[in-house]
Amino acid sequence: MPERVILHIDMDAFFAAVEIQQHPEYAGKPLVVGGRGNPQERGVVATASYEARQYGIHSAMPLREAYRRCPQAIFLPVDYQAYAEASEKVMAILQGFSPVTEIIGLDEAFLDITDTALGEPLELAKHIKARIKNELDLTASIGIAPNKLLAKMASDMQKPDGLTVIKPEEISKVLENMPASRLWGIGPKTEARLKQLGVRTIGQLARTPVEQLIEVFGEAFGRAMHEHAQGIDHSPVEPYHEPRSFSREVTFQRDTRNLPFLRQILYRLTKDAWQRLQEEGYQGKTVTVKIRYEDFVTITHAHTLPAFTDSFDDIWPAARALFNRFEWKKRVRLIGIRISSLEIKEAER
Question: Which among 19, 51, 102, 108 is annotated as catalytic?
Fold first, then answer.
């Protein structure tokens, strides 16, 4: 069986790059995209130009903190339609290189080119980058490796406009001194627990007995961490993912206890999620309503319907009944709806 060859293509500061295309005067300036573009309102950074990142601004940072770090930055609202249109063009280029393309967001994808006859991986990656640049005037960073885990890590090593190859014989050397947090699934809490074990780097994690990791983190996660630290990842590049749910939620600019207003917002969100359900040809069985209070406590209530349905007349009454189960002693920061337990709707005969 031949060694797999996986590419991870990651567009550079994608939202900001699309905005600069539309507003060339923003080029070379610190640019922050997030929320409604007002850093005095609630919202988080969706992306930041590399000029803004020099001030420590990063994705998911509150807009107010981004403004504190760089008040001279240009703040813009999120324009998903523009980003989606640009993303479709990028993905169309990628899918022309390999039918085994896994799109994992508006700005990144995996390509399995193991069985393609389009040339050497490095030259192929250069060709992909050139087409994206010449046809769309955007830049991408690409990682090439024997699996998805390593390819994604490689694409982040020389950003922006980077191209990095991790060869099988180089895996241990490349990973040795990287922070353990660079691996999938290792967030701040797991990183802190690893440090208690004396583990700070991927190399140290690779040398930690798998039995110890399983004892601390459980069978599945402990074994997965051990394998990832060795650079092992067998997950396939999957061209299509079945959706697990259709959901919508909204975070309010100001916390509220206005129940008629909250019920109206839930109605609109339910309508949106239901329309997505119908457009994609699915029906669902479980309805979940989520509330996040002003103190960030998050509560969900769910109800499983007696049968699969794509009828709004079934879904909305369930959502409304769940809404009535919540306590309203505190103001609400966020409300959301999810339709899950999906199956594909059979075509009518």
Answer: 108
